[in-house]
Structures are given as structure tokens and as C-alpha cells.
Amino acid sequence: MMQGMTKSSIAKNPSLLPLYVCFVAGALGAGGYLIRLATRNPDVSWINKKNPEPWQYYKDKQYKFWASDRVKDTEHAKPPTY
User: Which residues contact residue 75 at a Cβ distance below 8 angstroms, ignoring those fewer than 6 apart?
Assistant: First the structure.
């Protein structure tokens, strides 16, 4: 194991503990956000044969993590039909 990563070395240098906590929290947050993007984004389709146009499901739904330009209760413009 790397130097400074053992339990005894953390006990000798307790000031490094917040650094490790922030690193682990950032890694978990980034991993969770990637999983969210892979499962909730309408641009990503894992099963194309079952639903060839998955973005139609999200036509009137808010799927962005944060949308500053849109209020949920406002009426949406109708998309063009093909």
C-alpha cells in the first residue's frame, strides 16, 4: 500500500483526514453523476430495439439537473412532427 494511506499513518497525521474525506466524497459524487447521466439522459439509449426514440418519453418532462431558463409550470412549445 502507498505511504500515508495506512491507518497508522493517518493516526500520525490527523490533519490529512479531511483531505481523504473530500477526495472520497468527490469521487463518489462524480461516479454518481455519471451513473445519473447514463440512466436519466434522453440522449443515451441502452436498448434501441425496445424503444427506438427514447427522447419522446421526455418531451414534456424536466430531465436536466438544473434548468435556469425554464419554469416547470409554464406551457411548452409544441415540437414539430415528422
Answer: none
Q: Which three cell numbers stand for residue 27?
A: 469521487
Which triple of cell numbers denotes residue 43? 440522449
pTM of the entire predicted model: 0.58
pLDDT digits (tens, 9 = 90+) for 9-38: 888 888 989 999 999 999 999 999 999 888
* Residues in CB range of 36: below 8 A, 6 or more apart: 65
CA angle 61, 31, 11 (to 5 degrees): 140
d(CA 62, CA 42): 11
End-to-end CA distance of the chain: 59
Q: For residue range 47-62, what is the model confidence (pLDDT) as tens digits?
A: 778 777 777 777 777 6
For the chain, the domains span 1-82
